[in-house]
Amino acid sequence: MIAVVVSRADSASEHIGERLLALADWTAHEDGTRPDADGGGTYHRTTVDGTDVELRSFDDLHIHLDDPTPAFSAQPEYIVFVSRHSGDTGPLLTCHFTGNFGDAEYGGADGAFAPACPGVQRALVAGFSEHAPDGYDVAVECTHHGPTDVAVPSLFAELGSDEAEWDDPAGAEAVARAVLDLPGRDVTVAVDDDEDPRHLVGFGGGHYAPRFTRVIEETAWGVGHVASDWQLDELGHPAESRDTLAAAFAASDARFALVDGDHPTLERALSDLGGVDGRGAPGDGVGPDVRVVSETWVREVGDRPLDLVAGLEADLRPVDDGLRFGEPRATGYDVFDLPGGLLAEAQGIDADATRAAVERHAVAFETSENGTRVDGRAALPGAASRDDLVADLAAVLRRKYDEVSRREGAVIARVAAFDPAAAAERGVPEGPKFGRLAAGDDVEVDGETVRATAVRREREERFEL
C-alpha cells in the first residue's frame, strides 16, 4: 500500500489532494479511532495497477507532523507528502527526502534522517517530466527539513514556487498524475535481488541539486539524501560529524557517495566511515564501507553487476583511470593485451568503427586520452572473442588496404599506392599531374601517356598479434 499525506495548512497540498481524488475512483471510509486533525475522520482508498493507495489529511504542516504511519489502515510501503514548494525558482515540480545534516530548524531532529526511497524518487521525477505543464521545470532538492521520525521510507512531492503555482490546476494535476503513476513504475534500482541497491548519497552543489537530478534522470542509479554546500557548512567538520554522515547512508540504504565540488576533507571522512578505510587500513567503524565515486564512474558502470565491476577494476584499471565497458556481460573473462599496432592503424582509419568493434567483443577495456582512445588491455570472454575482435579490426583495415589477411601470428595488409619516384623516372613533373596519377588517372607528358598503373607500387604492412 502507498500512503499519501495531505496537509490542510498547505493550500497547494489540498489542491493536489483534490486533483488526486478527481483523477481516480476512490472509496470514502471513516476512521473514528483518531482525531480528524491527525488523519482520522474521512479518508479515501483506491487501487492503481493492483496497488492500494490511501489518502489521509492532517491539520498540521507536514514538517511538524509526528510519524503519520500509524494513521493508515496498514503499514505502507512508502509515504508521499504532497506539498507546496516556496522559492524564487518560478514554476517548479520538485521532490526530496527529509532530514537534517545540522540543527533541526524546520522540523525533525538534529542530525537525523527519515528513511529514503531513491527508486520512488526516480519514478516520481520521471512522472514529473512526463506530466509537467509548459513552463514548469523539474528538479530534486537537497535534504533540508523534517519530519525525521518516520517508520517507513517517504518523500515530498512538491508544487512550486509561489501562490500562482499553488493555485494552478495544471500544476496540481501534474503532481497528482505523477503520484498515481507510481504503482505502475519500477521503483527499484538494483540489478539482482542479492546486490546492493544502486543508491548514492550526494554531497555538495546547490540547493536544487542539478548534478544529482541528472544522475536520477540519465543513469541507472538513484540518489538518497543530499547535503548541498550550505548544509555542509551546517554539518561542520566532517571528521567530527561521522555519526551524522553514517546516519545519512543508513537512511539512504547506500554505500556509495557522489561529491559535487572539491571537498577532500569530506571525502576522507566518508572513506573512513566503515571498518576499512579507502587505503585498506582500519576505519572508524561507525557506518558502512563507503566508496566515493565520480559521475563518470556512475555513468560508465550503469546497471552492470557491481561485483563484476569491482573485479574488472582490480584486474585492469579503475574507471576513473580509463576503464570502459563493452556489450558482453559475461562474469567469466580472460585479460588479453590488445594488438597495439593493429589497433592503432584501425583507429587511424576509423576510430568510431574500431571502438564499436572493441565494445562488441570486450567485457571491459582500457583507454587513454580521457576515455576516447582504446589502448592497453581488454577483458574478453575467451580466446575465441579475441579472434573475433582481430577479425573485426582487420575488416576496418580493408577500408584503406587492397588486401588484408591473417597468418603467422600477424595481420598482413597490402596496398598499391602512387610512387612519386617512378613517376619522376617517366618525366612527370611534380604538381597537378602527380595528383592525377595518385588519384588513378592517366596523364600526358610530352605527347606520351603515362599510365597510373605504371607508377604504382605495392606496399605491405605487418601487424603483429
Automatic annotation (TrEMBL):
Gene3D superfamilies: AF0625-like
Cofactor(s), by name: Zn(2+)
Function: D-aminoacyl-tRNA deacylase with broad substrate specificity. By recycling D-aminoacyl-tRNA to D-amino acids and free tRNA molecules, this enzyme counteracts the toxicity associated with the formation of D-aminoacyl-tRNA entities in vivo.
Reactions mediated catalytically: a D-aminoacyl-tRNA + H2O = a tRNA + a D-alpha-amino acid + H(+); glycyl-tRNA(Ala) + H2O = tRNA(Ala) + glycine + H(+)
Assigned EC number: 3.1.1.96
Oligomeric and partner information: Monomer.
GO-annotated biological processes: D-amino acid catabolic process
Family the entry assigns: Belongs to the DtdA deacylase family.
InterPro entries: Deacylase_DtdA_archaea, DtdA
UniProt GO MF annotations: D-aminoacyl-tRNA deacylase activity; zinc ion binding
UniProt entry keywords in alphabetical sequence: Hydrolase, Metal-binding, Zinc
The record's free-text note on cofactor binding: Binds 2 Zn(2+) ions per subunit.
Highest rank taxon of the organism: Archaea
Protein's UniProt name: D-aminoacyl-tRNA deacylase
Organism, as annotated: Halorarum halophilum
